[in-house]
Amino acid sequence: MKQETDKYQFPQLEIYKESLELAHLKRKTIIFNSFVFVLAGIVLYYLLQLDAGLDTIISTMIMFVVLLVINLAFYSYDQDHYNNLKIVMYISTLGVYIIAISLIFRFPTPSMFTALFLTYAITSIYQDYKAMILSNSALFIAGSLLIVRFPTIFEIVGTSDSQTFFILVFLIVFVILLSLSSYILIKRKTFFYNQLAQIKESEIRNIELLLEIEKIKTGKHLDSEKYYESLKIFSKELSKKIGIENVFDRKIELLKDIKTLDIADVLIKYTEYTLDEINEIRYMELEVQKKMSMIGIKASKSYGIEVSRKEIFSESQFKSFRHFGDANYVKIVSFVVFYTLLKLDKPYLLELEESKVKDILLNSEYFYRVDREIINIYLDNNEVFDTIVKDHMKGVR
Amino acid sequence: MKMIINRILNSEFLTFNEVLRLKVAIVTIFLFIFVFLSIPLSSFNNFTLDINIFVPLGFSLLLIFTLLLMLFNLNRWAMHFSIYTIIGLTIYYVGGSNLFYGYILFFVTLTVIIFYQDIITYLLYGGAITVYGVIYIVQKGQSIVGVNSSGPEVSSLTYQIILIGFYVVFLIQFIISDNIYEKMNNEWVRMNKVLEKYQDFSLEYLKEITEEQGKELLYKDVKFQQTISELSIFINEFFEEKGENIAEFVEFYFFLHDQNIEEIIEDKNVSVMTRKYAKEFRKYLMDDRSELVSILFNFSTLFKGDSGYDEKRYEYSLDKLFTNKIDKLLSLAILYKYLKTEITQYDKWGKIERILTHEEVTELFVSKEFREFISFEQVNFYLDNQELFEKYL
To answer: Which chain A residues are Cβ-neighbours of B306 within 8 angstroms?
Structure first.
């Protein structure tokens, strides 16, 4: 069975994840450039100490300056900032390798060869898949070509032993280890962005679920008329108190109309407002829009929440049916209860078809919330599961 | 091997402990390669034959010990032992041969330590190996000076600067990443707790609905209990010959629903195993806002809230939602009225029947946590005019 783990991702996540990443990308671009700046200073000092000659000093420094200027230009250009910073990230990754390789050719010694490792360290600040592939490839290709094509770089004073083969083997092992390490780290980092974006969306959906269940329980819905009437009296008294004309009434009228009129009619009736202003006012509308109810619910529940240091990065925060250290029986029973509940009608969610349950459990994050062996038993025998539930639960709920 | 590759591909879904285990497994594979390579490379060594035989043998035993630690789920210990092995290998390589490939191992060792992503481990072991590397260069650097080098001093300085640079760059990265992820995780844990509060209320409403309808609670339903028992036995048959052994644990699970579970867990007269199972099952009870209930609610949200994305979808600050001053003021008044007239709180009997009083709303408005919703200016405006808020809203 082929898995599509993104199949049940909330569709709203991608854009929000991008905004989260952008904030960190800006920061990383600044840090990367600080490293390059310091490196340029060290290289300049090194070249001066070695009396490398004006041509070498100027050409090397020009490379650093060009790299820094490109970064500055892309960073300053505000439009499509996210993609701009991504492009400059790839340019910079290759750029520092070019500088390092040119230094190795200028000073063909084993000690200078290790500059490739330092370059790798600097580029790894980005923690990005494509930058990682570029960096690892550059390290591997540049490193192995230098070893194979220019073995004189590695000739050591006082020894005639050929090390080329072993240096190459060590480099290969080193690059594979680095690639695996970066791959896992970047995956985890991306997962964090995903989790944070997901919980924001999950919050909205949980509030909607709460509103839905509340409505089933109370049978009532929010009385917007009552709100608008109170607002009218309040704003009249407020205007009187602060000694200004009542500028609120027209907006309150608009709020009432937004519920019934479509946007074109609203624009005709309220010519003093632009579309952007009306769209903003729309957030305050209470019956069709849920924004203010959501803020109200969140505001009424968000106080008194404290997070201790112990809870950060604690595994217990991840809700699942496969907690480390739990007995197998517990993992089995908990999953079975969950599965059976999905197959029953609930006030907030009707019984799910077996094909739907299986599809979600296979193609969503829920696959990873169940013990691997148990979920595989289910996936291989889901029809048996379905039959058992149907046989026993006939007529219940 | 296939399992390791699968785990790497899906590593983001693993728990911290599982990721650590995976990392130790990967490092151990690489360490075996380095130990294996030490056999042909021993011809370059200055050591005697017995050292060249016994040291790699010793490393192999150390790696087997690391694997044993992993087998017993002592992954943190296994991590430490894998680091000791790579440090030992580095010392063995650079101590025996004075050749350049040995020097590369300093970077490999630092990479292995970085791989574990533990700042203290990096500071301690990474710092130690870097210091050792610098000492090695100072004392024996002349043995790896290239023929094209301008001299041993320049060569030594280059080696030192690059090794220290490598260590420092990753250290700075650690500090920055730790900071970013700690903030993100803090926010995530806090949001999780807010979500649990919503789910507490949802569950309470559901209990009240069931009560009002006079229905039997699902976990008391015999047919439901039989279903759970039969499904559990079916799964358990894949693990044990006597699948029905699980039946009494299913019974115990349902029994726990009507009990004061905290008392059972704390009761020293109850057997250790019973308390252990009670503690583990507590996470999955149906009558409490347990993990099971949270997962179920979250699962249900897959079928809710499919309105599209707009840039203010996750914005709850009235100050950021609205640019116009009148809108900011009107929204503040709406929020006040919502909190003061809608039922959002538990009463003293644990039912959702209570609204917030004016004093409670004021307390909320001035609290630090409320800056997420309203700005200082809005609070000041509210405080200056709170008698109007109280009287007319």
So the answer is: 11
